[in-house]
Every structure is written in C-alpha cells, then in structure tokens.
Amino acid sequence: MRAGYVRLAGLDEVLGRVRELSARTVIFDVEPLVAYWDSGQQALDRGVDLVAGQAAAVPEVQVVCFATNSLRRPSGVPCGDGARVVYVASAGKPLRTWWYAGFPRPGVVVGDQIATDGVLARRLGYAFVQCRPLGAVPAGPWLMKGVGWLVRPLAFTRPR
C-alpha cells in the first residue's frame, strides 16, 4: 500500500490530522512551515519552540523532528513535554533516511514539497501532509513544486 497524502492549510489542521492518524512520530520540514526561507535566527527559534510545544502536546506523539536540507540550526532544541524533539540540518531529503531509523511508527511528514518531503514520507512508509506556504516563494522551491506535481501520481495514488 502506498503512503497517504493530504493537503492542509495550517498547524491546527495538521495536528488534527496527526491525532486522527494516531501518529507517534511527526517530521516537520523547517522552511517555510516553521520559519520562512529568508527569516533570521529569532524567527527560527520562535517557530521551533511553537511547533514543538504544540506537536508534543498531542498525546500519541513520542518524537517531533524538524528536518531541513539547509544548514540553519536553532539556538537550542526545546524539550518536549513527554516527546523527544530532534532537529536535523543538512538532512539530504529525500535520499537520507537513516536519520529517522529509530523513530516509532506510525509517522507523518509535514512539508511543502512533494519531491522532497513527500518522497521522504513515501520512503519511510509515513503519511504525507502537504502545507502550502503563503506569500512569495523563492525560485528553487517554486521550481521544485513543478517536479513535485510530476512525482505525485507515482508516489501517492493507488495502482489500478
């Protein structure tokens, strides 16, 4: 069976879906969901704290992971109430999966790009929740969106 796929608008909807799936692991793409691409250190720290706190409050969640292909890192990784919080910079999504090897199942990957976050979810056997960024999108992610729409039918629809 192929991994599930759904598009949602915001963190509240995402966490509602995490509850529905009884996910024990949630992997969040950092840019633009936690902090926008061109934002500074304060925005990243604030976003990580906010998302980690809300995700860790979901009773079933045991691991909250933040994964980014960029080099940026928060000043510190918060301690989740009852959930382990992990931050992975230079994650190499979707090729490197060993970062997530010991995480409990079932899991959900939350991201904006099908070609990276969605394929990572597929490779891990996790559900994929796609969130669309608001506002202007840099050229690289905008181009990846087109690649993602080519990949989506292969990764997230059932064979006939």
CATH C-level label: Alpha Beta
Number of helices: 4
CATH architecture: 3-Layer(aba) Sandwich
Q: What integer is the average pLDDT?
A: 83
Q: Could you tell me the CATH topology label.
A: Rossmann fold
Structural class: alpha/beta
Order of helices and strands: EHEHEEEHEH
Provide the helix percentage. Answer: 25-40%
Low-confidence stretches: none
Largest sheet: 6 strands, parallel
What percentage of amino acids are in beta strands?
15-25%
Count of beta strands: 6
Molecular structure report:
This protein is an alpha/beta fold and 160 residues long. It has one domain (5-156): Rossmann fold, CATH 3.40.50. It has four helices and six strands. The chain has helices at residues 11-21, 41-56, 114-124, 139-156, and strands at residues 5-8, 25-29, 63-67, 84-88, 107-111, 127-131. Strand 5, helix 3 and strand 6 (127-131) form a beta-alpha-beta unit. Helix 3 runs parallel beside helix 4. The longest helix has 18 residues, at 139-156. It is globular. The two termini are 12 Å apart.
Features:
4 helices; 160 residues; alpha/beta; six-stranded parallel sheet; Rossmann fold; single chain
SSE map:
Blueprint: E1 5-8, H1 11-21, E2 25-29, H2 41-56, E3 63-67, E4 84-88, E5 107-111, H3 114-124, E6 127-131, H4 139-156
Helix pairs in contact: 3-4
